[in-house]
Every structure is written in structure tokens, then in C-alpha cells.
Amino acid sequence: MKVTLTVNGVPRTADVEPRRLLADALRHDLGLTGTHLGCEHGVCGSCTVLVDGRPMRSCLMFAVSAEGAEITTVEGCRSPDGGLGHVQQAFVDCHGLQCGFCTPGFVTTITAYLRENPDPTEEEAREAIGGNLCRCTGYQNIVKSVLRAAELQRGAV
Ligand code: FES
Ligand code: FES
């Protein structure tokens, strides 16, 4: 089946099996390997992408269900000039990653969160990432990254 969607602002078409997961279509059909698959059961959050601006687990969604949707992957969370986006930069500043496997899911999740909550408290930042698992960092530096990204975002307005 043909599926047409906009990915990171670019119209894309893929020819997929009806049961092709959105995550697999992004990685294997469209070559966007920034989206990572961990549990493949909707638990870890590493596959999170934004579908029409909302975080979705791309391991739980068929590619054909995304027909006509606007998808943002971690590759699309960059700044308009092509450099690191605020959330990506914040992870660098705060050492918010170690192996990096979980990071794409955190970056997309936090990007969507900060659009609606531009000035979170530490507690709110902790809650915002409550659905994403990381086996390396112990989360503290990811919480710091949320707060730092909010600061960078406010500074840019
Ligand atoms: S791979 Fe999708 S939630 Fe874990
Ligand atoms: S940095 Fe390794 S799983 Fe999060």
C-alpha cells in the first residue's frame, strides 16, 4: 500500500505492507534511523515521534494509519538553521545521555511537552519524562535537560 505523509516538513511516500509499523517505515523505508526501537511493546518510549504535534509510540502505530499526517522525528527537532534544537542542545549541556539509545524518544517527548509547558518546575519536568525509560543515566541529568531546554527556548523568544 502507498502511504503519503509529511516527515520533518518534507512530503514523503512509502510503499508498505499493511502491517508495517510506523517505526519500521521511518527507519527502513524512509531511512530515518534516529527513531529507535527498544521494547516494541509501547513501554520504553524510545520510538516516540510526534504525529500532528502529539507524542506517539511509533511501535504501536501502523504506517498506513499515519496517512496524511505530519510526523516529526528526532531528526526534525533541530533548529531552523540546521543546528541542534533547544532540546538537543540541552542534552549536550547537561550530559543528559550516555549510550543514547533512549534519547530520540526523550527529545521528541520533551519537544512536544515544552510547546505547551514552557516553564516547568523540576517536579513537572520529572513527570513530563515519566513515560520514557533510560537504563543509563538515572534520569537526574535528563530532568536537568528539560529545565535547560526550557531556558534555551525562553531565551530564543
Ligand atoms: S519501542 Fe516503542 S515504546 Fe518501546
Ligand atoms: S542513555 Fe542509555 S538508555 Fe538512556
TrEMBL record:
It comes from the Bacteria. PROSITE patterns: 2FE2S_FER_1, 2FE2S_FER_2. CDD domains: fer2. Keywords: 2Fe-2S, Iron, Iron-sulfur, Metal-binding, Oxidoreductase. GO terms for molecular function: 2 iron, 2 sulfur cluster binding; metal ion binding; oxidoreductase activity. Residues 1-77 form the 2Fe-2S ferredoxin-type domain. Pathway: Alkaloid degradation; nicotine degradation. PANTHER family: OXIDOREDUCTASE WITH IRON-SULFUR SUBUNIT (PTHR44379:SF5). This is (2Fe-2S)-binding protein. The lineage of its organism: Bacteria, Bacillati, Actinomycetota, Actinomycetes, Cryptosporangiales.
